[in-house]
Amino acid sequence: MKKYLLMGLLILIGSNVMALSGVAYNRMGAPTSALKLTERELELPYNSSAQQENSGILLSINWRTATKPDNAYTPYNSNETTVTQAQLLDLGFELPDNNYYGAQSRQLYWAFEFDGERHAAEIAKAELRYQEAVKTYTEQPNDNNSRLKDDSLVNFKKEKLTNSRLFFVKVATDYESLAAEFAGQDNMLFVKGLAKPYYNENNDSYRLFLQQLLITEIMLPLEYSETLKGLSRLGYQDIEAPRYTVDIKWGSRLEPWITKVTRHE
């Protein structure tokens, strides 16, 4: 019995040493990204206000894809991007066709832009949509156009104040090429995620479905739990300025850690 207990203890110690070594290695050297995200990009869990002070809080990373350049504003996140045949092959995928449903997911490196030109473009599009809705209602005042005007105003306000400003930019098979392409831009984030291709026979195009990040949530250290005490996750209809800012760094393994949390009264 003692033999098995000792073996179990050694396995437990070994696992902890490996985990701590991984954390230490990730934080060695200069961070690959360092951002000040807010409640717009880091959401509280649904039961955050009911959680105990000594229980961990996981903040969810909220990212988006931008509206296509030639398309009107839409508040919905498509979670996909258009790619060419050559790009799919370069990313290591086989070409899917309309009879191919078994395309495999691949782990790729994703680049995001934070609070940059993509977000500015979304605000401009949301404002234009609202102005067009006001004009339509002025010319044809009815219940339907009134509802469209009100909805457009809500979306415009949310785009300015509440929606995430973290936008997907592109994927690659390696971190180094992304870091070189966006060198000098301090608002970029590089992480790992899963993606899967499909063929859209309606418009004869290939799309890449951005399934999920490898790390979708970030643990809030206990030392910062008190800062966010009593806050509940905002609802879909809530429109208000971010109530907190979180300083985060990503290390050599593209894994994040929180260095500071500031609450805004």
Report on the structure:
The radius of gyration is 22 Å and the shape is globular. It has helices at 2-26, 85-90, 117-139, 143-161, 175-181, 222-225; strands spanning 33-38, 42-43, 57-61, 80-83, 106-114, 166-172, 188-200, 205-213, 217-220, 244-250, 256-263. It is an alpha+beta fold. The chain is 32% helix and 28% strand. A hairpin with a 4-residue loop joins strand 7 (188-200) and strand 8 (205-213).
Quantity of strands, as a count: 11
Strand content: 25-35%
C-alpha termini separation:
57 Å
Widest sheet, order of strands: 4-8-7-5-6
Strand and helix layout:
Blueprint (H helix, E strand, L loop, with lengths): L1 H25 L6 E6 L3 E2 L13 E5 L18 E4 L1 H6 L15 E9 L2 H23 L3 H19 L4 E7 L2 H7 L6 E13 L4 E9 L3 E4 L1 H4 L18 E7 L5 E8 L2
Helix pairs in contact: 3-4
